[in-house]
């Protein structure tokens, strides 16, 4: 029901071998491991002074990127072409960021797949999530990835509970969706393409 093909576009052809459209969207999180295993780690953009690289040999940075002072990148991670990584951003190991994305001030990315043109520009947390093309997260919005009781994360849809088999799983945000400032997406939230989440609310389940 929540197949990748129904949630996400894929403009970056280099990710196509790992992007299985006929599987549930959350299984794309497994593809991150395969992407990073097969990545030829290269740095194609100059770095400014004050950028901190942890496990530097496992960090790939594409062409035309702006990596600002004070950002922290932890390998293995992949950053595509034309990205802007702003001051204070924290990209943790196991993250794949596609082309033309913005990862902004005090934004933390953890084991997530960020697709082309997504903007996470201010004080965002994204853990174990897939963020679709052209998505915008308002300032302070969060994709929480762990239940308080530590149990398996499930998805509520039409009164039914779908089991994901994961104890860490944030959100699937379909292409073109908008999330308002300071909104919280609880573990297992799915935003269908073009969905809008209002500011300052907490949501879960499937949002159209």
Q: What order do the helices and strands come in, and which of them pair?
A:
Elements: H1 4-7, H2 28-38, E1 52-54, E2 59-61, E3 66-67, E4 72-74, E5 77-79, E6 84-85, E7 90-91, E8 95-97, E9 102-105, E10 108-110, E11 113-114, E12 119-122, E13 125-127, E14 130-131, E15 136-137, E16 142-143, E17 153-157, E18 160-166, E19 171-173, E20 178-179, E21 184-185, E22 189-191, E23 196-197, E24 202-203, E25 206-207
Parallel strand pairs: 1-4, 2-5, 3-6, 4-7, 5-8, 6-9, 7-10, 8-11, 9-12, 10-13, 11-14, 13-16, 14-19, 15-20, 16-21, 19-22, 20-23, 21-24, 22-25
Antiparallel strand pairs: 17-18
CATH A-level architecture? 3 Solenoid
Q: Write down the overall mean pLDDT.
A: 96
User: Number of helical segments?
Assistant: 2
The multimeric state of the shown protein is single chain
CATH class: Mainly Beta
Can you tell me the CATH superfamily? Hexapeptide repeat proteins
Q: How many strand units?
A: 25
Question: In total, how many domains does the architecture comprise?
Answer: 1
CATH topological fold name: UDP N-Acetylglucosamine Acyltransferase, domain 1
Span between N and C termini?
14 Å
Regions with little confidence, pLDDT below 50 for 5+ residues: none
Helix content: under 10%
Specify Rg, calculated over alpha carbons.
Answer: 16 Å
Label the overall shape.
globular
Structural class: mainly beta
Spatial ordering of strands, largest sheet: 1-4-7-10-13-16-21-24
Beta percentage is 25-35%
The ordered H/E elements are HHEEEEEEEEEEEEEEEEEEEEEEEEE
The major β-sheet equals: 8 strands, parallel
